[in-house]
Amino acid sequence: MTFNLKQLLKPALLLALVNATGVFAGELMVHDAWIRAMPPNARAVPVYLSLHNDSEKDIALTAIETPLGRIELHQSIQQGEMMKMQRVERIAVAAHAMVKLAPMGYHGMLLDMQAPPAAGEQVALTLHFDNGETARVEAPVIAGQGEMMASGHEHHH
Known about the structure:
Layout: H1 5-21, E1 22-25, E2 28-36, E3 45-53, E4 59-66, E5 69-79, E6 82-87, E7 91-93, E8 97-101, E9 106-111, E10 122-129, E11 134-142, H2 146-150
Parallel strand pairs: 2-11
Antiparallel strand pairs: 1-2, 2-3, 3-8, 3-9, 4-5, 4-7, 4-10, 5-6, 5-9, 10-11
């Protein structure tokens, strides 16, 4: 019996890549987590990530925890000419769908911290879902266009 080494390595490399960039909670994958670096006097720090639900059932993110402080779930909504942030109790992820916690949409808001995390730090996050699952991820603290950098897509002008 002969084996093609490339064929054997492809699944192993794919699995390593997925595990390096995403964390699974059941059939839900959490990836591209990042936290925006803020000035040292900031009292609120945004938390972003992507949730991909590959299951047959809708799942909702109900909480995010970190040792640094308290995280509330928020949604930015446009009211007339103004953007307003409102607290939400849960963020639904439909079956076979993806939801991004990103600027100008859903996001976490880190509050009640001693000091905001600095650019370059890693912040431990524990996500809680309505199906009882949890996921632990490390989110890098990134200055500037973090969303582009966290997903590996750098944009140059």
